[in-house]
Amino acid sequence: MAGTMNVTNPVDSSEPPVGRVARPRDAKLTPQDWLRGAADLLVEKSIDAVRVDALARQLGVTRGSFYWHFIDRDDLLQRLLQSWKQVQTEQVIAAHSGQPGDAQTVIRELAELPFHGVSARRGGAVELAIRAWARRDDMARAVVDEVDALRLRYIQGTFLELGFDEPQSHHRAFVLYAYMQAESLFRAQGSEADKAARRQFVEQLLTFKSLPF
Questions:
Q1: How many Cβ atoms sit within 10 Å of the Cβ of residue 83?
Q2: How far from chain centre, in Å, is Cα 123?
Q3: Which residue of 26, 73, 139, 150 is 20 to 30 Å from 176, comparing CA positions?
Q4: How much is the pTM?
């Protein structure tokens, strides 16, 4: 489940939010710009590199611009995680849920998500960096666990719609989700034909009504 970082811009106001500095002249950047820059640093380096000074230098502005949109670094990191959750999970689920079609089509489209070009590569890189962050940070770990649970629950629902019982739906959802993560991680493995064949195999395997074990 991949995508690009996106958040709603704050409502403009002539007065600064409570607890934040007055709006500086270089505060033309939106929260989305800062979140995208934070994601870039996270991917290119690590969570340790995502600091206010480093972001300001990268974006070519002063620290004052940051404090117009965020309370502090922790606020930025929390919103980065929530933005990732929203764009790469909640929006993806909403988009698929709102489309006409059967559960089989949804499963096929989910299996194809890791191959959606630049957006998939960007989303995969950000996700990998966030998961590395989560190995050492409880806040990130909690959001990653929540995202995994949301995704698995949604995928399980598609298998329930196909007529599988709850245990079978749970197992098949886990295998499909693991496959999606693996294709994102090992995207350089195989030709386009190899990848298409793997997708078809996984789809056929997981939607076959009676497995030989």
A1: 22
A2: 6
A3: 139
A4: 0.81
Closest by CA position to 20, among listed 66, 68, 63: 68
Which range of residues forms the domain containing residue 159?
31-207
Total structural domains in the chain? Answer: 1
Instruction: Please compute, for residue 41, the number of CA atoms within 13 A of its CA located in the half-sphere on the CB side.
Output: 21
State the Cα–Cα distance between residues 77 and 173, nearest whole angstrom.
Answer: 30
Tens-binned pLDDT, residue by residue, of the chain (213 aa):
643 323 333 223 333 333 334 444 454 889 999 999 999 999 999 999 999 999 999 999 988 889 999 999 999 999 999 999 999 999 888 887 766 668 888 899 999 988 888 888 899 999 999 999 999 999 999 999 999 999 999 999 999 999 999 999 999 999 999 999 999 888 888 999 999 999 999 999 999 876 554
Q: Spell out the residues 6+ positions from residue 201 whose beta carbon is closer than 8 angstroms to its own.
A: none
- 10 domain-assigned: no
Residue 5 lies in a domain: no
Q: Tokens 């599988």 correspond to what residue? A: 164
Give the CATH number, domain containing residue 140: 1.10.357.10
**Beta-carbon-side half-sphere exposure of residue 207 (alpha carbons within 13 Å):** 18
- Please report whether residue 13 resides in a domain: no
